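hey so u asked for the seq, here:
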Amino acid sequence: MLIRVILTRDRAARIPNMSVPRLAGGLPLLGHGIEFHRNPVDFLRRGRDLHGEVFSFNLAGKTVHALTEPRGNSAFFHAPDDQLSAREAYQFTVPMFGKGVVYDVTPELMDEQIGLVIPALRDVRMQNYARAIEEETEAYCAGWGDKGEIDLLNAMNELTVFNASRCLVGHEFRQRLSAEFAHSYHDLEAGVNLVAFFKPGWPLPAMRRRDRGRANLARLISGVLAEKRARPPADEDFVDTLAAARYADGRSLTDHEIVGLLLSLVFAGQHTSAVMASWTGILLLQHPHYLNRVLNEQLKLPHGEPLTIASLRQLVTLERCIKEAERMYPPIVMLIRTILRDFVYQGHTLPAGDLAMVSPAVTHHLPHIFHEPHLYDPDRFAPGREEDRRTQFALIGFGGGKHRCIGSGFAYQQIKVIWTVLLREFDLELSSDEYLPDYSTMMVGPRRPCMVRYRRKPRLARGSLDVPGDHAMTGDHNGLAPSLSQTCDRREKACGAGLQPDQFR
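ran it, structure tokens below
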């Protein structure tokens, strides 16, 4: 097997315009779709083992070319938009975000629209978001009682929706309309599935839910815009930023454009943060040595004072733990482009009309890039090792190049704040011996149920940040107070198996 892989790589390097090695098997019409849907990561790793760093397969009648090395990631992210097109690959998002924004405009206009968001991500605003997220997290877990059990992924999904509605749309919106926002956002998510990827206009029940959800969200956000424009200008959230923004030609954004950009921002960041926050917590609780270090690190924070950007930057061990969660369990397991012009890579010609794909989940587990990649080792990112920096495009959980997610800093800050509050308030303990990734969902989080037990720390002891287990967790475990997970339908599993737009990547 190893000899075959080496020979395949050598031939690809020497022979120009080779066709891409093709994975055998598959079914009529569906191709490798069933195996891919069942576990896309194992599928892609199998293709790499058989054929080397680049290979192709059939996905529902479409040829997909997978690039699995960092140099392939580099070629993928650096390719011009008129050769490898995200816009063409993610047309299924147009009914979700709306016409005239993001993937329904030229790449140049999309870049300009994304640039209009940057003022909302500067330090002074990030400081406001840090405090807002701390308040939201404290309020969210205030009703948990002294002990109990939660589904961690459900909790992180709910909390990040609250944070998104507050930081993106505003504090008043969060107070008045969060439940309605969550219901409508849940409907919008129905538009992410394998059918929509190929036929976004088909009149299926999921597409009707998508359209209904978008219409309701547009109505809610437009109401906020009208209220804000009737008052003196503020500078508090993303709505304020976009309302004040101007294109290069001096034109202001329409309400329709602001709504679309906000929806794309929520969609791009909410699930990513929820999934990474869940894996961060699970991995920490599975590895007490690193949990102890995170707890000791937090002892250095000023007791009783709100979290600040400066104090969050001191949490370097926690940040490495988040990065290791991103490496081991990237929320988006693949990124896709439509090939508009023949794309030559390592002697292989990827023909126009096919799809090109890179996979963080595959690259992040290459042993010649990350030492013993199956092991949880946040110190691989510490000074002196920095395995992610030794090879460009080795860590691509947030994309790369000009397509790297502009909200990655916000995501890391949100997860830092959430876990700082939870570890300050509670002793936590995993309820299961095994937490596996769920590849049937659009973002690959832990498989449900994803249960974690908690016991609230005594008020006077919260500054001590005891290690979980110091207080015995015995007796019955009370459930959560009613929450969005009890008032909303369970999130339906999308059949896209990770076909998620690499929004702002």
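The chain has a mean pLDDT of 84. The two ends are 35 Å apart (CA to CA).
lmk if thats what u needed
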